[in-house]
Amino acid sequence: MEAPSLSVRKGAWTEEEDILLKKCIEKYGEGTWHRVPFRAGLNRCRKSCRLRWLNYLKPDIKRGAFADDEVDLMIRLHNLLGNRWSLIAGRLPGRTANDVKNYWNTYLRKKMVKPSPKLNIEVIKPRPLNLSVPLDKNNNNNNNDSDHAAASTPASNSLVSSDSGNNSSYDFSNDNNEIMWWKNMLMNEDEPQGFGNNINHSASGDQFINEALGV
DNA sequence: AATCTCTTCAACCGCCTCCGG
DNA sequence: TCCGGAGGCGGTTGAAGAGAT
């Protein structure tokens, strides 16, 4: 619960507040959000500070319209994960969960007027598949198929290659299982039987992600 | 030009999970 | 083991701008 401090400020952030928050994060780093309002001299709650930073002020945030390949990837991930916006955003470098959620609710939900049986997903429990095909770092196993655009896009590069840049997505370079799982999922998303067979539906997506991230 | 309606997206709210004491 | 605080997430709201009438 928030400390019922005398009238914590709400609503739109001012430029001045943004500057204060930015300076504070630059100085102390992210985290310990409960201390941020005090450190920054802001009359805002910790959640508001965190949200403002993550959704707007963070330097690597990508602004502007979603590219076709980002949308394609988003749809595929949504088919796999459901409304797990933070997980989806984690695979879209520079995009925030809020961006993804807003985009989905604004544009894509309209298109999915009635959820097809395929979209009526029970959230799968992602886990690495045992693929015998070695993963080519250039992802050339199936890249002749235009429908697999996601696998050759900058966004998805973070899925299949070492992503040592400063974006916030997970660096999969040390986890071939993770790489292969995602690769397989994205490529076979049109063929439910393609990924359903080897999946243990007893675990949760979170569990998988945690395992994959080694947490 | 004025008013109404729709769209967009930043921000808030409430809940859940995790972790340390 | 229990409890409280902090972090994080998804759903929802509402203000502002754009477009339509």
TrEMBL record:
Biological process, per Gene Ontology: regulation of primary metabolic process
Biased composition (Low complexity): 156-169
Domain HTH myb-type: start-end pairs: 7-61, 62-112
Ranges for region Disordered: 131-169
GO molecular function annotation: DNA binding
Protein's UniProt keywords contain Transferase: no
Subcellular location: Nucleus
CDD domains: SANT
Domain (Myb-like): residue spans on this chain: 5-57, 58-108
Keywords attached to this entry: Activator, DNA-binding, Nucleus, Repeat, Transcription, Transcription regulation
Highest taxon, organism lineage: Eukaryota
Name of this protein: Uncharacterized protein
Organism: Gossypium barbadense (Sea Island cotton)
